[in-house]
From TrEMBL:
<feature type="binding site">
    <location>
        <position position="50"/>
    </location>
    <ligand>
        <name>pyruvate</name>
    </ligand>
</feature>
<keyword id="KW-0963">Cytoplasm</keyword>
<dbReference type="GO" id="GO:0009089">
    <property type="term" value="P:lysine biosynthetic process via diaminopimelate"/>
</dbReference>
<dbReference type="InterPro" id="IPR002220">
    <property type="entry name" value="DapA-like"/>
</dbReference>
<dbReference type="GO" id="GO:0005829">
    <property type="term" value="C:cytosol"/>
</dbReference>
<keyword id="KW-0457">Lysine biosynthesis</keyword>
<protein>
    <recommendedName>
        <fullName>4-hydroxy-tetrahydrodipicolinate synthase</fullName>
        <ecNumber>4.3.3.7</ecNumber>
    </recommendedName>
</protein>
<keyword id="KW-0220">Diaminopimelate biosynthesis</keyword>
<feature type="active site" description="Proton donor/acceptor">
    <location>
        <position position="138"/>
    </location>
</feature>
<feature type="site" description="Part of a proton relay during catalysis">
    <location>
        <position position="49"/>
    </location>
</feature>
<dbReference type="GO" id="GO:0008840">
    <property type="term" value="F:4-hydroxy-tetrahydrodipicolinate synthase activity"/>
</dbReference>
<dbReference type="InterPro" id="IPR005263">
    <property type="entry name" value="DapA"/>
</dbReference>
<dbReference type="GO" id="GO:0019877">
    <property type="term" value="P:diaminopimelate biosynthetic process"/>
</dbReference>
<comment type="function">
    <text>Catalyzes the condensation of (S)-aspartate-beta-semialdehyde [(S)-ASA] and pyruvate to 4-hydroxy-tetrahydrodipicolinate (HTPA).</text>
</comment>
<dbReference type="InterPro" id="IPR013785">
    <property type="entry name" value="Aldolase_TIM"/>
</dbReference>
<keyword id="KW-0456">Lyase</keyword>
<feature type="site" description="Part of a proton relay during catalysis">
    <location>
        <position position="112"/>
    </location>
</feature>
């Protein structure tokens, strides 16, 4: 089976805009979709963890998905987040969700209960068996505590319905091992914006990006420079985003990127508890960095 080129390049991991009443801000979401679409993102990722999925209700998730599909003016591929640490609940969600218009599921490694590698393999095998559309794995040990190891990922890559992985393990050694061992038709996607250039240099196919929410054009240029071997140009942009990547996570994700979007006039920086809006200090640092790098 050939590499699924729909998910090569930049997938914007869409935030969820909220209004002053902490309800979904659909006009803001429309502006966001338009921004990332017109900015050149290659596909949209709906209700990943950057979309504050832990504090968005099941019905809100479905409403956001439907709204995104309706307002997807360029008919970009759509990836929808369905994951969790209760395998039966994830399977039930897949069964009950109308996935018409969705091109793949993004499913996070089970968190908190710290399964073994065998448990992770069984969890994702069950999801892939149940899903009517392709599955992208998501490895983010900084949030889930457990790292999906290369042996487990390679075993899962043999499943015909598992087409790739968003890997945010932060380990270049693991990335290189995956690049060396993964089948040619298995997508290797960075989950770390600051490592895109380096990961592309060893064979990765793109990124599911937080930064692309606010800076889709610039981050798309960075990613495609790297994917097409123009590493000098990619490195220049990568270094321009270096401070951003640090600032965005100081007060947790998506607090920082929402502040950037507020500065740009796309939507408010409101988040749902237990997260808090960006501090004044963080907002000032982000705005200064945006001005200095010419992103504002």
């Amino acid at each position: 089976m050939p590499l699924d080129l729909r998910f090569k390049g930049v997938g914007a991991a869409l935030i969820t805009p909220f209004d002053e009443q902490n309800e979904i801000d659909y006009p803001g979401l429309k502006r966001l979709i338009d921004l990332v679409t017109e900015g050149g993102s290659d596909y949209l990722v709906v209700q990943g963890t950057t979309g504050e999925s832990p504090t968005v209700t099941s019905q809100e998730k479905l409403d956001i998905l439907a709204f995104t599909i309706k307002n997807n003016s360029k008919s970009l591929p759509i990836v929808y987040g369905i994951g969790g640490n209760d395998t039966r609940a994830v399977l039930d969600c897949i069964k009950k969700t109308d996935l018409t218009g969705v091109d793949a599921i993004l499913s996070v490694c089970p968190y908190y209960n710290k399964p073994t590698q065998e448990g992770i393999f069984a969890h994702f095998t069950a999801i892939a068996d149940a899903s009517p559309i392709p599955v992208l794995l998501y490895n983010v040990p900084g949030r889930t505590v457990v790292n999906m190891k290369p042996d487990t990922i390679i075993k899962l890559a043999a499943h015909p319905n598992i087409i790739g992985i968003k890997d945010a393990c932060g380990s270049l050694e693991q990335t290189m091992e995956l690049a060396a061992r993964a089948p040619e038709d298995f997508l290797l996607l960075s989950g770390d914006d600051n490592l895109v250039t380096t990961m592309a240099s060893v064979g990765c196919h793109g990124v599911i990006s937080v930064i692309a929410n606010a800076f889709p054009k610039e981050f798309g240029e960075l990613t495609w420079h790297a994917l097409e071997g123009r590493f000098k140009e990619a490195a220049k942009l990568q270094l321009a985003f270096l401070e951003f990547d640090t600032l965005l996570y100081i007060e947790s994700n998506p607090v920082g990127i929402k502040k950037c979007l507020e500065i740009k006039g796309v939507c408010s920086s409101d988040v749902r508890l237990p997260l808090l809006k960006a501090s004044k200090e963080l907002g000032e640092k982000l705005e200064k960095a945006m001005i200095r790098e010419g992103f504002l």
